[in-house]
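Hi there, hope your week has been kind to you so far. Thanks so much in advance, here it is:
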Amino acid sequence: MAHLSSLIVDVDLRSRENNSAHRTREIDGERLIVRRGQPFSMTVQCSGPLPPEHHLELLLRLGKRDKVVIQLQGERGARNRWWLHQQGAQDELLLTLHSPADAVIGQYRLAVLVMSPDGQVVDKKDESSFHLLFNPWCRDDVVYLPDESLLPEYIMNEDGVIYMGTWDYIRSIPWNYGQFEDYVMDICFEVLDNSQDALKSSKMDVERRSDPVYVSRTITAMVNANGDRGVLAGRWQPPYSDGVAPNRWTGSVPILREWSKAGTGAVKYGQCWVFAAVACTVLRCLGIPTRLITNFSSAHDTDGNLSMDVLENFEGTDKRDSSWNFHCWVESWMRRDDLPKGNDGWQVLDPTPQERSDGEFRCGPCPVAAIKEGNLGVKYDAKFVFAEVNADIIHWRVRPDGQREKISVDQRGVGRNISTKSVYGDVREDVTLLYKYPEGSEKEREVYEKAGRRVTEPTNESAAPGRLRLSVKHDHPVFGTDFDIILKLQNYTDKDVQVQLNMLAMAVTYNSLHGGECKRQVIDVTVPAHQENKEVLRLRYEDYAECVSEHHLIRMKALVEVPGPAEPVMTVVTIPLRMPELLIQIPGKVTKGDKATACISFTNPLPVPLKAGVFTVEGGGLLPATQIPVNHDVAPEQKVSVKLSFTPTRAGVRKLLVVFDSDQLGDVKGVATVVAHKKTRRSISSQA
């Protein structure tokens, strides 16, 4: 049949209307971005009425070199098929596209075809494209979250709170996820495109992108750069001079943009909370409900025996297993059709490179429900995750002849105060009971037996039964000050007891790597019968200034050598040093498109001057990451202040994040809530 020229004049994807309906307006107002399982519309302008019995069809292409091609016809097909509904007459047609709830996510290239009665293409327009994302609002999507009131947090919120510190002293830092910042979505798909599977077989990879289990597992591998083209290189101790220290990042967007700009070269450097936060950004952006989790006293069980063997020789510890003060991962919500019933809901995903899973450094998705019930045979990596929240800690003393002596067994010290940001604001929600039954309950014992963990009576690591009890008390000192650690020995026997007290204060990182010895003391102590004895270890700033890590943690170990056949008594505590307060003030009303000012200040708490100071400021919808150097030394007790002008690009409740760093003091963070108002007609007319 002869070609009928210029039948299709224009195709309008109606991006603004569709993006509003699909809750993607924050990502982009100009490009079409829609969610699967939810219809969207477009208009086709024709030069005139279509010839008799001619009709429109759409052709969708996905992947490099059109690896996947989908043809849409004007009839409702099977539940898992695309289909097209056509309305209108004369020269304008309204087309409504229906995507299946299990459609492949990604960028689709769209062609509009005019078809003749005998199935020939008589006209074609193929200049349009759109992005399709997961849809947690759609009941048929496997990422559907039944309680939609949670989605404003787990999909739409760009402002995060990450919990850090120790189980008994939890602090928080703000984080800008920035999943709706310009071109972040494009970088998220770029992350998928550079995975090992995508590079191996593009067609297979594209076809599997309908499955959030596959997509989330790919992202978990790609956020770290171990063995692939991943985003972040990890480093757990200084120096960081050839990159950015992990504690200086305040958001995911600069990391993702730097990775993309560098041609997929790894960004330096990340640690667990940075890996988890970047993963949270990517997963939320693609439409998978996600939240960041912090597990305090987190076990890293390298040999899979569900116990942590720590060798105490007061010179260091055995590195085969380790207990981290905290460890961050993410949970994503999805249905697990690949597993037996009971495994739907929150899934653990851990992008920090620790152990290999199917040959790559990744972990999960692992059902939280399986961890709680001790079902360790389910995919993926359930045994490793179970140990992170449940392992025993067994302390051994190494005698001079090399023999080991068991000091204590602690079955309750791992997996404490498991935390996430609440959906109701910037407050902590404890989710420990989602991971395990109450400590000491019968159900908890049943789960341990089911998981293959031996059920033994724990020993009290700070007491010799009927003899001595050892405890440690301390305040939460500010970094830069001198402070006391008080050790209390209580004698419950009828006789005076002479013991040797070994005290060792060491600087450690958050994942228990040793940063250096601060102070050591060995004394002989006599504790009268039925009385207590107090000893004080004084730590001055100069004792810990040179060896403390960027995490500002001091680990205090105390060992009491008891005469006779009795076992020694030992206790270990981690003391976090508090950071000074950073103040942020934003005077006046803040309006989108108008210049605003932030005033930032803090006082040097150290007894030494701070050199090479720099403030880094960032805020989604407010300004990109910006550095403000301090061009002078900051003397002890001196207040340093800077001013910053910024112009909000998006209205709404926003967070301005600030971090201060210098030669002697870093990781000083602050956050301010900014309400960016929309311009009123009156303000627009007055400017005109």
Notes: Residues 8-133 form a domain with the Immunoglobulin-like fold (CATH 2.60.40.10).
